[in-house]
Each structure stands twice: as C-alpha cells, then as structure tokens.
Specification:
- Helix content is 70%, strand content 0%.
- It contains 6 helices and no strands.
- α2 runs antiparallel to α6.
- The N and C termini lie far apart (39 Å).
Length: 152
Amino acid sequence: MFRTPASIFRILAVAEVFSWTLLIGGIIVRAVGGPALAVTVGGGIHGFVFLSYGATALLVALNNRWGLGASVLAVGSAVIPYATLPTEIWLRRSGRLEGEWRREETADPRDRRPIDRLLRWFLRHATLLVALIVVAVVALYVVLLIVGPPGR
C-alpha cells in the first residue's frame, strides 16, 4: 500500500481533502442550528489528518530531495481547503513523486550526508519510523487539543 513515496503522499492528500469536507460540513451544520459537536468531530478528524499529512509531506520531501519551495508548498497546501490534491497532481506531473524509498546508498554524493544516512536507516527500520511518526503526530495533536481550537 505504501510501497512508494507517491502512494502514501496521494493517500494523505486525498484524506486531507475529505477531512476538510468534514470540518466545513460541521461548520455548516452548526451555523444552521445543529449541534456544535459536528464541528468538534469534523475538526478533530481534520486536525489529526492535517498533522499526518504534514509529517508525510516532510518525509517524502526528504526522501525525494525536493527543494525548499516544493517542500513548503506541499506542507502549506494543507492550510488551504482542498489544495493538497492539486499540489499532489503538480508534484506528480513535475516528477517530484517519482522513485522508490531510498533505503540503500548510491553513488550520489548527497547520500553521504548525515541526514540521508539517518533517513536510510529509518527507512530500513520502517516499523520504528512509522511508530515514531505516529507518536509525534499524536503528541502534537494532544498538545493542540489542550491549547484549544484556533480563535479561542
């Protein structure tokens, strides 16, 4: 399912679109007199998917060696409703999502950088990488829940 950077990025980009729909739907429900719980549920799901997408975008950007502009655009697209999907399409069409996970060193001199060596080590220990990302996303999510929703 997540055999390539492109596959996981696509799944999270689409999930972010659905989570925006839940959040916007919850806001509409509350605005027409429905329960505020609709925003709480939609917002909670959106927040978790938002953080997961951001973590995934950073991982794929590092693996695929995107420049700063593409990396910022990918992460920043989650802030604008429905922008992750056109961003994913652009990244795919521009070739930035091509390739496999970089688990082995190549002749490329960049592969000797400490960050690339660390990335390869984590990619070879994917279960640990996924566990660390999940723990980081959940921890940040909990902190943000404690701080409260935006505009509070």
